[in-house]
Structure formats: structure tokens, C-alpha cells
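User:
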Amino acid sequence: MELQNLSYLPLDIIMIPVQIILSLVALYFFILGMSGLFQFRIPNSYQPRKKFAVVVPAHNEDVVIGPLVDNLKSLNYPRHLYDVFVIADNSNDGTAKMAHQHGAIVYERTNLEQRGKGYALEWFFHKLFNLPQKYDAVVVFDADNLVDAQFLRHMNNRLCDGAKIVQGYIDAKNPLDTWVTSSFAMAFWVANRMLQLARYNLGLSNYLGGTGMAISVDVLREIGWGATSLTEDLEFSLKALLQGHKTTWAHEAIVYDEKPLTFKQAWNQRKRWALGHVELFRTYSLEFFKEAIRKKDIVLFDATILVLQPLLVISMGFFTLMGFIDAFVLDIYTPIFKYIWPPLLWELVSTLQIIYPFLVIWMDKLPHQVIKWTIAHYLIFVYSWIPIVFLSFFGKTRVAWSHTQHTRSISYAEVMVRNK
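Assistant: Predicted structure:
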């Protein structure tokens, strides 16, 4: 079929614009991903001088809180330049006692109406501002994390360089447990390099990942936290960007996060994230689009793409379904990718989506043992985002916060053995 006869099929009036838009988005992410293959911007190194309040919100985390506090208290950073705080948030187990025994400064919070990490941080930050001890920045970790010994030194470097909001590299502390933890880890590894490092290289704004993040106390005082959605991290990144504060990236500042063991646990966790992202899509998409057009700002344009991601996922899922029907059942529309991109280039872009995980494992010297799980597992995990996001569009975005149960403790030494 010739390009000038594309109007022959009824669905073309919808599918041609959809394909063009998705092709441009795919090209954008292709360029973005390629920008993460190297680290263009090398951070400066400074002597430790920033003082940190290291904050760990914890709800019923007595299994994992002890090893994390021990880990945090042994970081390679002057002890007089950081304090470790644990927020025992609506906990009814031994979290507060365990954290105190391991040397953390413990704050207990009980509020059954406002539950979740966003509310806990909001509550604690108000108390932090009134403490006699003053801090340059807060660093937030989840209770199931472990942290690289040099983490605070890398954050000190970024803050001394003028950054106000910094996200560190989120690794997995249990990538070899199941095919789900392996797939989860691979997804984060790819995002760390092909999205986060890429944005840093290009001077765009990064986004917070909920843990391993540093925020200047001055910025918190100026704009407030005010992030209480199910994706409070992304919400704060967007809120700060609208007020002129970009988030930056520290590829060498590593935090190890525990990934869910089963597909059901992973589904529930990602459903919570999707609900939060859908809420932010409804709240911020129009505002970011208008600001990006008004200011002709590539940083705001990139943020608009990020906010629109739930809609893009649904559109891609719809297009994939239509493409399957068109290819194997009935000709219902005209694929135009071969007209706007050379076929070999389109195949290259598609193939890279499969190659990325293995490329990142090699480049960042990550555990190659995850390759024992086939690429099919990873693709199942990635494409399962489509029904998760689709269902989230029709769900309530303000739902009760759900806790991921942790059943075992992993020490920092065990993680380091894994990385050898």
C-alpha cells in the first residue's frame, strides 16, 4: 500500500497520528538511552563538610532495621557530620526498640488516618527544622536498604558542587533470589544508566526514587515537603522543578534496595507506584505541558514526557494489541514505521530494548549471574506494566498505603560478597 493511500482503512485516521507520536517518543527515548552509555560529566571531589540528617521511615521493620542502622553508623564519613534518625511510623512491633538499641535517634509517630512514608517525612521534617542541631541536607533511605560506604562522600561532592536535590544509584541487594527479583533488579539497572545517568549527562532534571536521595534543608524550608501521594518521591521532584530546583544524579552513590520475591508482591508494589503516577499525571501534565511550551525549555519538555508516561504506556499497549491483530488476524490499519524510519533502524531500536540489560550489566560490573533467568522473564516483567497502568487509570489513586513484608535480614558484608 502506498503512503498516499493510507486513508483507505477506517482505523488509519486514529492509528496514523498515534504511530507518528509514538515513533517520535521512541526516537526520543532512543537518543536518551544512547546518552547513558558513557558518563560525560565527572563530578568534582571535596573534603567532607556538609552535615547530613540521615532519615529512615520504618513501619514494622524490626527484621531489617538493625543491619541498616549498623551499616549507616559505619559509613566512611566523619561521624560528627551526620546523625541517623529512624521514624517508627505506626509500628506495633519492635522497630523503635531495635533501632534504639543499634544507636539510632528514634522518633515514634502514630497517626492511623495519615499513613505512609510521605506523611511520616512531612511530620519529621517539621521537627527537624526546630532542632538545635542544624543540618545542610537530609538523606532518606528505606528500612530494608543497605548503603555503600562512600555514599555520603559522593553526596557531599554533589552538594558542594551546588546541587540541591540529588538521587543516588538504586541497586538490588537480593537480585539472585528469584526470577522476579532478578527482573526487578535489571529494570532498575537499565533505568539507572539509560534514563537517570543519561538525563544527568544531558543536563536535564533527574527524578527521585524514594530512597538514596539527598535534599538540601534550605530547599525543604523554602518549598516544604508537601508530597503525600503514593509516589511521594516523584511528586517532590516535579514540585521542586516547577519552582526552579532541578534534581541531579550521583551514579557512584549506591544504595541497595530489597526487591519483592514473588510476582504477586511485585505486582502490588508496582500497582501502588502506578496509582501514584496516574495521580501525578492528572495533577501536573497540563501544567508541565504549558510551561514547557511557554518557556521553550527542554528540561520541562523532558519532565512533561515523564509525567505523561502512564498515558504513553497505555497508548503503547493499545498499539501493540492493534499491531498483533493487524499482523495475524485482519488488516485493520496501515503500519507506517517503514515509511518514517528505515526498516533496519527500526529493528535496531527494537533489538536494543533486549540488549540494554546485558549491556548495562557489563558496563556497570553488575552480578552477571542474573543472566541465568532468560530474557523472556524480563520481558514478561516489563510488559506486565501495561495492565498494571491500565487498571490504575480506573482505580482510586488515594488508597490506603500497603506495607511490603520483609522476612529475612541481609548484612552489608553479604551484599559485598555478592558483588565480588
